[in-house]
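User: I'll paste a sequence; please echo it back and then give the predicted structure.

Assistant: Echoing your sequence first, then the prediction.
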Amino acid sequence: MANAYQPLTPSGKGARIGDRRVTDFSVAEIRDLLARHDWLAFEDHPVTTDEVVEFMGRFGTLVHNDRRQGAVLNIDASKKDEGEVLLGEGFLPLHRDGALMGTNIALVGIFCVEYKNVTGGGRTFISDIDNACKDVPAEILDVIRDKGIEGRPVDRYYLKPSDTWHWIPGFAEVDGHSYLNVGFPYRPGEQASWLLRIPGVDDDRCQEMFETMRAILMSERYCYYHEWDEGDLLLLDNRRLLHGREAFKGQRALANLQVLAA
């Protein structure tokens, strides 16, 4: 099992699985693979949304809220409301699911329902933050560890956009190891789903720090860019990585499922 799959980044994380359907794996096998690789890309053996829901339910309690149909959040730009960035076609910076909602998400599944005539990008990207942070200047990590970040949702997806800034710890402990816990702000000119800042750090310095980290975390050495096909499934250990989305145009419908941490 340890050497069965090649990593998806030069830094050694991620695994592409094309020899078996995800439903052919046991919960123990998936947990072992995620512990080794942090995320898994299942290709060439399409499964249905119902099969994904049933399979992910074996790992714990699935998230249900007012924006989901059962456990499924349909990310379908053709059906989005105006003012919703997250469910649309715009760029999504590196982030961790659940952070702004105050929800501790352990496992995320992203399933491709439809992918046709997509132009301009549309890839989901995933960063190996564990290894990438070794290249981030220590003074930046020290500030984030000390101050954390503050976030404010502005997207209609969140139902109640708030004027209140919510504090988020800069690092999170997972199985005795410390992982970067921040999301990234939008760049000027990008329609934003959320706003982020580092408390006590002026805007110019904050932007500089995030740009330095972004260049490292999204470099080819540490970041995997998934080219979607219908039926693909990404399984992510949400606590050990950050992920995002390229902007695009076209028919791109994904289903997002989340498993709460125990």
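Residues 203-217 form the longest helix (15 residues). The chain has one domain: 15-260.
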